[in-house]
């Protein structure tokens, strides 16, 4: 890599760090190509991205961002998983780490909050942004549904009473 390519790589990483909601640092312990491809596919399906970057360039890229605290995690064969959704990248990496011992979660950050490996695992157990939105919409819609049921209920009860009297008179 020549100097211009390094500068371009730092600029791209810096742009990514300025846009994302969470960064997860992993250490690759001899993953096969098939495992690496599987991990990338799972992360992409979750709406996140996964990149192997040179540690020196990544440290330069995080210098002026909220993620400057994760510089200590960037040692050895590392890779960076990022996502705008604060849970997506963590959930995808933790789920993959359960299936193999070839990847280690080193740590990460959510905004200015630096998280260790246990913090990333705890973050992965939280519901995603879409799940939270669905729950919130369900909670908002529930009272309206109950009101609609209550307004219809007296009419149906009245109809049943009239039907019972009609059947009684017919018998």
From TrEMBL:
Cited function: Forms part of the ribosomal stalk, playing a central role in the interaction of the ribosome with GTP-bound translation factors.
Quaternary context: Part of the ribosomal stalk of the 50S ribosomal subunit. The N-terminus interacts with L11 and the large rRNA to form the base of the stalk. The C-terminus forms an elongated spine to which L12 dimers bind in a sequential fashion forming a multimeric L10(L12)X complex.
Protein name as it appears in the record: Large ribosomal subunit protein uL10
Keyword Lipoprotein appears in the UniProt entry: no
Signal peptide: none
Upper lineage: Bacteria, Pseudomonadati, Pseudomonadota, Alphaproteobacteria, Sphingomonadales
Top-level taxon: Bacteria
Species: Novosphingobium rhizovicinum
Keywords linked to the UniProt accession: Ribonucleoprotein, Ribosomal protein, RNA-binding, rRNA-binding
Gene Ontology CC annotations of this record: ribosome
Family, as annotated: Belongs to the universal ribosomal protein uL10 family.
């Amino acid at each position: 890599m020549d100097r211009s390519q390094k500068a371009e790589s730092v600029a791209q990483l810096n742009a990514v760090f300025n846009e994302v909601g969470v960064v997860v640092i992993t250490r690759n312990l001899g993953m096969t190509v098939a495992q690496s491809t599987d991990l990338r596919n799972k992360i992409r399906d979750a709406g996140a991205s996964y990149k192997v970057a040179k540690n020196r360039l990544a440290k330069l890229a995080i210098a002026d961002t909220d993620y400057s605290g994760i510089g200590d995690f960037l040692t050895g064969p590392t890779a960076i998983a990022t996502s705008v959704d604060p849970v997506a990248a963590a959930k995808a990496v933790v789920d993959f780490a359960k299936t193999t011992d070839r990847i280690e979660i080193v740590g990460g950050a959510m905004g200015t909050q630096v998280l260790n490996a246990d913090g990333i695992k705890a973050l992965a157990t939280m519901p995603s942004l879409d799940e939270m939105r669905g729950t919130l919409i369900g909670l908002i819609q529930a009272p309206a549904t109950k009101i609609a049921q209550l307004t219809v209920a007296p009419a149906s009860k009245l109809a049943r009473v009239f039907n019972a009297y009609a059947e009684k008179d017919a018998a």
